[in-house]
Amino acid sequence: MLSLLGTSLTIADGLLTPAVSVTSAVEGLTLVSTLRVGTDTMPIAIAFLVVIFASQQFGTAKISLVYAPIVAIWLTILAATGIASITYAPQIWRAWNPAEAVNWFRRGTFWQLGGVMLAITGCEVRRSADRSR
């Protein structure tokens, strides 16, 4: 019975995490465009998910040929904006101070850890899917 429960939780995590991640990313487009949440974003999110799940049949080796340059560009942009942000506001380094984490929990904003957990589980599901091939 426990193995059935564990299997169902794993399958649910593998289905829900990509759906929630893609939907929230597409809904983020409403901040910079005239798209409306739900009516405009849902078909776009569904199309993304269909493409992602349909492309898995080709294997990670072939898919990585397409995604690797995109990820390299993305990481380069992240590094450049990170360096620019630290240069502009060096107080960013305060985030490494453990006392700041304690203060963060005291302010009651720890509910934001749900988003962090969603990102971690999404990466883990993707990584475990890669290892199973």
Keywords:
74% helix, 133 residues, 5 helices, mainly alpha, 0% strand
Give me the secondary-structure topology.
Elements: H1 2-27, H2 41-55, H3 60-88, H4 98-106, H5 113-131
Kindly describe this structure:
The protein is 74% helix and 0% strand. The chain is built from five helices and no strands. It has helices spanning 2-27, 41-55, 60-88, 98-106, 113-131. Helix 1 packs across helix 5.
Assembly of the depicted chains: single chain
Helicity range: over 70%
What is the mean pLDDT? 79
Query: What is the tally of helical segments?
Result: 5
> What fraction strand?
under 5%
Beta-strand segment tally: 0
Radius of gyration: 19 Å
How would you sum up this structure in a few lines?
With 133 residues, the chain is mainly α.
